[in-house]
Amino acid sequence: MDNIDQIEQLSENVQSLINTKIELFKLQTLEIMANAFSVLLKRLLLCLIFLVCLVFFSVGLAIFLSNRMNSPFLGYFTVGLLYLLFLVIVLLDQHGFIESVILNKTLGFFFNSKNK
Fold first, then answer.
1. What's the confidence (pLDDT) of residue 91?
2. Comparing 54-58, 77-81, 100-104, which segment has the lowest mean pLDDT?
3. What is the spatial distance between Cα 77 and Cα 104, in angstroms, rounded to a whole number?
4. How far is CA 96 from the centre of its chain?
């Protein structure tokens, strides 16, 4: 009888250990997701602020160029062509430089948060 009680106790301990490991995994996953969400939210906010600054800078540059070129529209077309040039450069990125940078940053974030 004593061996049966010890086996039952051992079985309960193993089950408790498994349940604790599952809960720990859930909490670690939740922590990683919360960190990722907070970083994503922070970066989205920074991007929004950057875009607002970019719009004001672009309009200011367009007005400045229009005044310098003595044309009410030529400055805006010049700024638009600069953005079109940037778009073409991004679209022609055949070596995947931009994707590799984003992928490396994302993987680095998840591996660094796992090691903590």
1. 85
2. 100-104
3. 36
4. 18
